[in-house]
Design a protein that fits this description.
Elements (H helix, E strand, L loop, with lengths): L7 E10 L2 E11 L4 E5 L6 H8 L7 E6 L2 E2 L5 H5 L2 E4 L11 H6 L14 H13 L15 H14 L4 E5 L7 H18 L2 E5 L3 H7 L2 E6 L2 E6 L1 H4 L2 H8 L3 E5 L6 E5 L7
Parallel strand pairs: 3-8, 3-9, 6-7, 7-8
Antiparallel strand pairs: 1-2, 1-4, 4-5, 9-10, 11-12
């Protein structure tokens, strides 16, 4: 592993939007150098949790702790040098070129008027290479396919050169081929750079295949956490997703494979 140890955790976390409680008394410790996925039904608080871990949402109770410090009390630039976030459906400025967008990932490491250094150029080049987007460097982002754009956004997060990377539904709107492409890329980053990755995923079978650990949420609470084999069960599918299902062993990965049972197939 090449990444440094950076402990990220939520301690009795509560998040409210006005009078609406979205997350309540949630405790979560993010394992270093592993890939994790947050799963759960729509509206259960997954994205809110991720955004709170990334310091974009201020908790109404409890705290997020990064390396022993309350993250909302840390300077923004210090957090950005350690933790990167890829939000859901990010928007690029119209007409911006790929290399220019990726270069913006260097912002936490530079002041506004300092010239580019060798390490800045190297970080951008490495991010383009790792995401297989170097050949797209001179193309406009808005002219790319969905899979290409997603890889470019990941490249920008990589150029930020953080050891923690949080991604909100990185496979949304992508066809299956490009979903696998993005998840394979994130796995490569974890294995080659030791990057700690936490992502929100809707597809439980892909989450089980690609994540070392899962955190299952429902109604703003953490229901279960552990390896996919420990978390994914027919009981969980019933209790959390209100869905009858069989859980079998994936013949390729030997991780849990959820087979939903629609009402027309129930005996």
């Amino acid at each position: 592993m090449t990444g440094s140890d950076h402990q990220l955790s939520a301690q009795r976390l509560g998040v409210s939007y006005g009078d609406h409680q979205v997350i309540s008394e949630l405790d979560l410790v993010v394992p270093d150098h592993q890939v994790g996925a947050i799963i759960g039904p729509n509206g259960c608080g997954k994205s809110t949790l991720l955004r709170t871990l990334a310091r974009l949402v201020r908790p109404s109770a409890g705290q997020v702790v990064l390396d022993g410090q309350a993250i909302h009390q840390m300077p923004t630039r210090e957090v950005a040098r350690t933790l990167g976030l890829l939000p859901q459906s990010p928007l690029a400025p119209e007409g911006i070129l790929v290399e220019d967008l990726v270069s913006r990932g260097r912002a936490p490491h530079r002041s506004a008027f300092t010239p580019w250094r060798t390490e800045d150029h190297a970080a951008v080049a490495e991010a383009l290479e790792l995401t297989h987007t170097a050949e797209l460097a001179e193309r406009a982002v808005d002219q790319l396919s969905g899979g290409q754009r997603q890889r470019v956004w990941i490249a920008m997060a990589l150029a930020q050169n953080t050891d923690l990377l949080l991604l909100d539904e990185p496979t949304t709107y992508l066809d299956l081929h490009h979903q696998i492409e993005v998840l394979d890329l994130l796995t490569d980053l974890n294995r080659t750079r030791g990057t700690t990755i936490v992502m929100v995923l809707h597809d439980i079978n892909l989450a089980s295949r690609y994540a070392d650990w899962l955190a299952a949420m429902n109604d703003g609470a953490l229901i279960a956490q552990g390896t996919p084999g420990d978390v994914v069960s027919e009981q969980l599918m019933h209790d959390v997703f209100d869905l009858p299902a069989q859980v079998i062993s994936d013949p390729v990965s030997e991780t849990p494979l959820v087979v939903p049972i629609g009402r027309h197939l129930r005996r």
